Amino acid sequence: MENSLELRFELLQSIHKYYPIGMPLSTHSYPGYKKLLNILEKKIITLQSEGKVEPWATLVEAVCSQIKSTFVIDMASAQFPCYILRLDLSKKQIGEIEHISSIFLSVSLLTNHYTIFFNSDFKFLQFDSKVRERALVLSLKENKEEELEKVEIIKMEMSKYFPKHNFAHHTALFNYNVKDGYPHGLLTSYGKESYSIYQFLFGPYPEKEFIFKVLD
Hints:
By secondary structure, the protein is α+β, with helices and mostly antiparallel strands. It has one domain. The protein contains six helices and nine strands. The chain has helices at 5-18, 31-50, 56-64, 148-161, 170-174, 197-201, and strands at 71-74, 82-94, 97-108, 113-124, 135-142, 166-167, 177-179, 194-196, 212-214. The strands form two sheets. Strands 1, 2, 3, 4, 5, 6 and 9 form a seven-stranded mixed beta sheet that branches. A two-stranded antiparallel sheet has the order 7-8. A hairpin with a 2-residue loop joins strand 2 and strand 3. Helix 3 runs antiparallel to helix 4. It is globular, with a radius of gyration of 18 Å.
């Protein structure tokens, strides 16, 4: 069911639950969207009062103790009903181009699903202009056979701490778009006809900053 038709039905039903897709309603007047905001508010209040959210914090510790990384970013505080963990696995530089290979775990609070994917970022480090120090020019979502043991480690820990969540393959989330609506965090559609399932349910992703491609 990691990338099945049944999975897509479940994900689309979750989107319909929280977003007024194709309806003549503003997002903020939709009853489901108010539930989305309540879920987000509960997460943020817990973070502010306790400094962490369980069982997410314990899961992060368990994963980081087993997967060697050069840099860890815990994005639990993201203004979206989700948890996101990024582990940078390697960093290389050839000439003026920097390459960072990472693994991401995204856990949705809008559906009982999570996803794992590898990400390769290629950045220019030097420019004639002084406006920006670096720019993300290419980002690839990809499968890495040699790194699959890391995926299994995360799946094992997810089964312990989020037993009701099921794994969803990232291609089902990034390759399928939903029209006539826009994800939480955006004020309008910004002229886009559609957004990916991932953006509606799993968190923000700054597509406009890079060339985006999914690799099977």
